[in-house]
Amino acid sequence: MKRIGVLTGGGDAPGLNAVIRAVVKTAMHDYGCEVIGIKNGFDGFLLPSGASLLTTADVRGILPRGGTILGSANRGNPFARKITKDGREEIIDVSGEVVHAINALKLDALIVIGGDGTLRIAHEMYLCGIPVVGVPKTIDNDIHGTEISFGFDTALNIATEAIDRLHTTAESHQRAMVVELMGRDAGFITLHSGVAGGADVILIPEIPFRWEAVAQKLRDRKAHGDLFSILAVSEGAHPIDGAATYNRPGDQISVPRLGGIGQKLGEYLETSGIETRVTVLGHVQRGGTPSAFDRWLATRYGSAAVRVAMQRHFDRMVTLISGHITDMPLMDAIAIPKRVDPLGDAVQTARGIGIAFGDEINH
Q1: Sheet of strand 276-280, all strands in order from the earlier edge strand to the far edge
Q2: Residue 249 pLDDT > 70, yes or no?
Q3: Are 8 and 71 in contact (CB under 8 A)?
């Protein structure tokens, strides 16, 4: 194997550069193999200068950097690419062009770093004859088959620090503080940071809540002398009798963008007589220096992806199981999304220390 490509797709996550660095250094040091960096996800195959040779000099110093030196693309699906033709938007399939570009670059393997959407595209590209190896990337930690995805630990630390900081101002002004966190349809960031940060209420997509149950929890706390409360709310949280809240509709290319449930909850609590402030942490959770754990995990993933490619085990994803790096079929990884288990020990632990999930009213 002489030449492998590497690309990053979907949203950015802390640790992407660590994977790229590990791919380049492992390929060159252990196998004497060239690495071609593809810019802006699969879109790079359609650009005149979208591919370039990566050397050890190119990856020097990028280990602690957030983002990705290759760039990324949330809408870079070659099987459904949006173009404007004669003043109208159309969705076309350019996968054939991508396959042609990969063959023209003489890539013996393509390492695809991404979340569930990007990995699904990688599997479809394999069905078109492209030798792919996937690396799981998402701050949401919602990829099935791996215990943890790189980027999650950094996002968790940032969310926990935010909750810590909200404690002091909430206590000073005797208010309820709502912090809306990322995670899409998975509540891992909110659950873990809520427990780690000492939240009083945690709302996640996997456990629909009752508006009144949340307000009652805060009133009960005040009756017992706790004059402030912290509420950690996942962007995908929704009431039992309602749907999730979106701030942008979806289309043929993009899924709807979640956001706004924190503000809705804050308004409801205000009408219930509870002074409330809302903080939306947003993309702060994605940015900045990756944690030591994410750098370590991303480096292991990147190096393992090269080894899997060299063994010609394609259409597979590297994964962390019981502390060990192994690999699994891509189809298995994307078949079932990973979600918080409402009956699992993490939720039981939270309930056991008095955290409410808004699904029951205790008098």
Answers
A1: 201-203, 229-234, 176-181, 276-280
A2: no
A3: yes
Name, in order, each residue with C-beta under 8 angstroms of 298's C-beta and a sequence gap of 6 or more: 15, 16, 18, 19, 22, 150, 290
Give the pLDDT confidence score for residue 29 in this predicted structure: 93
Residue 2's alpha-carbon distances to 32, 33, 274, 309, in angstroms, are 8, 5, 64, 11
b/e per residue 170-204 (b: at least 16 CB within 10 A):
beeeebbbbbbbbbbbbbbbbbbbbbbbebbbbbb
Contact present, 167 and 356 (Cβ < 8 Å): no
The count of structural domains within the chain is: 2
Assess if residue 362 is contained within a domain.
Answer: no
- Alpha-carbon 156 to chain mean position: 11
User: What is the pLDDT, as a whole number, of residue 322?
Assistant: 92
Other residues' Cβ atoms within 10 Å of the Cβ of residue 84: 8
> Residue 36 to residues 72, 96, 331: CA-CA distances in angstroms?
15, 20, 25
**Mutual angle of helices 16-31 and 292-310, in 10-degree steps:** 40
Residue 254: which pLDDT band, with cuts at 50, 70 and 90?
low
State mean pLDDT over 20-32.
96
User: Which among 241, 225, 161, 151 is positioned nearest to 193, based on CA atoms?
Assistant: 161
Q: Which of 77-86, 200-209, 266-275, 313-322 has the lowest mean pLDDT?
A: 77-86
- Side by side, the strands of the sheet bearing 316-321 are 51-54, 34-38, 3-8, 109-114, 132-136, 316-321, 324-329
Residues 26 and 70 placed together within one structural domain of the fold = yes
Residues 276 and 243 in one domain: yes
Q: Which of 140, 153, 185, 327 is catalytic?
A: 140
Q: Does residue 140 have an active-site annotation?
A: yes
Residue 279 belongs to what domain range? Answer: 153-287+341-352
Residue 73, both tokens: 């693309």
What is the rounded CA–CA span in Å between residue 44 and residue 304? 24
